[in-house]
Amino acid sequence: MSRSTLRGSAITAEIRKAQAAAAAAPVDPKASKKSAKDKAAAAAAPKGVGEIRIIGGQWKRTRLPVAQRPGLRPTPDRVRETLFNWLGQDLSGWRCLDAFAGTGALGLEAASRGAASVQLVESDAALVAQLQVLQAKLQASAVRVQRGDGVAALKQATPASVDLVLLDPPFDGDLFAPALQAAAKAVAAQGFIYLEAPRAWTDDELAASGLAVYRHLKAGAVHAHLLRPVAAATE
C-alpha cells in the first residue's frame, strides 16, 4: 500500500470520528439557536465518503475523503490538471482565496504547489469541519479554513491583494455576478480568477467587472474559465 493511500485512510478515519463525535454530542438546552443549527448541520454529515486526489505538488497522488453531500461537485481531475497547467505548477509566494471551498480540492491543489497563503471559505458547517481535519492531517500551515459567505470574504479582502481567486459557486444559485464583481476588486493587477460555471461567460458579460477571458475549457457540463483583469489579459 502506498504512503499516499495510508495517509488518505488515516484522514478518512479522522473524519468519521469527527462525524461520530458530532452526532453523539449532548444537546445544551441553553445553546443559542445559531449553535443548535451548527450542531444539526455537523450531525447531518453523511455516513459515507467519496475521494478526491491531489494531482500535483508536494501532496501529489494523496487521496482525500470528501463528504457526499447533495449538490457538492468536486472539480474533476481533468479540469484541475488543466487549470494548473494554465497557471504553471509552481505557485510559490501566491496568495489565494477559495470563496466556495466545498471539498477544498482547488485550494489544496494551490497549497500543494507552494502557495504562501490559501484561504478556504465555506458556509456549510459539516464541510468546514471536514476541511479543518484535512488541513490538520496534511499539516498545511499555509491553509486557513473559515466558515462564512464567500462573496462577503471577497469584499473584506484588501483590494488588489489576491493573486488567485477561485470561484466555484452552486450552479443553481445567483452568486455568479456578485462573486465576480467582488473578485475583480480583490484580485491583483497581474492576478487570475478561476470561474467554474454551467455555461460559458463572454467578454461582454465580464466587461462590467473589468475582466476578460484568458483561457476556457468545456468538460462535460462544466465550463472552466481563467479570467484576468482586462489590462493583464491583453498583454
Automatic annotation (TrEMBL):
Coiled coil: none annotated. It holds the Pfam family Cons_hypoth95. InterPro entries: RNA_MeTrfase_RsmD, SAM-dependent_MTases_sf. Gene3D superfamilies: Vaccinia Virus protein VP39. It comes from the Bacteria. Keywords: Methyltransferase, Transferase. It is an enzyme of class 2 (transferase). One of its GO terms (molecular function) is 16S rRNA (guanine(966)-N(2))-methyltransferase activity. Its EC number is 2.1.1.171. Transmembrane segments: none annotated. Residues 21-42 are annotated as: Disordered. NCBIfam families: 16S rRNA (guanine(966)-N(2))-methyltransferase RsmD. This is 16S rRNA (Guanine(966)-N(2))-methyltransferase RsmD. It comes from Acidovorax benzenivorans. The gene is rsmD.
